[in-house]
Here is the input.
Amino acid sequence: MENTIENKRLFVASHWGQNIFNYDDGTGQFKKLEVSFRALRDCNAYDYLSLRDVKSITDSECIEFYNYLFYTVDTSDESKIEYIRDTFKDEDFEDDWGMRSSYDFLRSKGFAVPFMGMSIDKLVEYRWIKLEGNA
Here is the structure.
């Protein structure tokens, strides 16, 4: 996928409603805004989304994600937390077909996930995202 403003708007739209859009307010300062029609209309090459690395997932998010993946309602279990953390330690999790079905869930929680064949590294390279803690 090419680094065009149209493609970037598609990517930004996939995070609709999240307060993660950083835009230049004209003074060189970035302000955070909810992804909405305004964000899409005004999106330019300097704007980016602030997203979390999946490796920063919390214990409670691990349990929620595990329950989502396996259709359970467990509240806590150290083995489930470790299962999810180990999944994200694998550098190839982006290419795992089983994980692709869960990208919407991760995206809704503000995590960086691949987009239309573009890796997270490519999204960072295109400056469409900045990973929190690395901004």
